Task: inverse folding
């Protein structure tokens, strides 16, 4: 089969101005809850795009852990590639793709670290092996083999037992949105796209974009 011949007609739903929420966080909350209720695979998975100092972009999938009007939160190793790129350029983009619902959400804005208290609170809710893993993995560094990770996990497990503290190099980020886009697939590739742009006074301008 020729990959160029793969096609799908999107006909599950629509997105109109009259049926969308005035605030983008409310629209996101609505769609997220619908994705969870519909039991789509990993509705909390999002692609994070960052840009390095040499202007090369990179993407990876991370998991959203919290959201509210102040932004979108995830947790990771601060010393990995994404952490290093965010330290040099705090602007980033997120994308959710709920394939079964024919929906995409794109979010852009500036990223900041969450407070130590927030990172500590979340870290201690993680399973024990995940807490040990945060110590064991020198994220994004070249290692000689998987044995390095296994040995590190055994060493830190023996050192911390059941109470590993949060590593100083691990914690949360919050993307503070200034732009949201909600995409709903439609028939004949005439998709619905609504963009919310934050204005100087903090209000949101909602506009329809051509697909």
Result:
């Amino acid at each position: 089969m020729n990959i160029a011949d793969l096609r799908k007609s999107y006909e599950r739903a629509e997105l109109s101005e009259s049926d969308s929420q005035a605030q983008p966080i409310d629209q996101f909350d609505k769609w997220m809850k619908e994705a969870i209720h519909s039991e789509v695979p990993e509705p909390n998975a999002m692609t994070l795009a960052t840009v390095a100092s040499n202007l090369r972009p990179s993407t990876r999938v991370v998991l959203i852990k919290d959201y509210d009007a102040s932004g979108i939160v995830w947790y990771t190793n601060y010393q990995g590639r994404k952490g290093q790129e965010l330290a040099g350029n705090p602007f980033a983009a997120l994308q959710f793709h709920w394939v079964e619902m024919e929906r995409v959400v794109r979010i852009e804005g500036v990223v900041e670290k969450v407070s130590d208290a927030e990172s500590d609170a979340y870290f201690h809710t993680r399973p024990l092996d995940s807490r040990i893993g945060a110590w064991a993995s020198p994220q994004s560094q070249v290692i000689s083999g998987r044995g390095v990770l296994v040995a590190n996990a055994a060493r830190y497990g023996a050192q911390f037992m059941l109470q590993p503290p949060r590593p100083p190099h691990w914690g949360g980020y919050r993307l503070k949105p200034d732009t949201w886009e909600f995409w709903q697939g439609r028939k004949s590739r005439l998709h619905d796209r609504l963009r919310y742009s934050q204005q100087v006074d903090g209000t949101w301008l909602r506009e329809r974009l051509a697909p």
Notes: The first helix runs from residue 24 to 37.
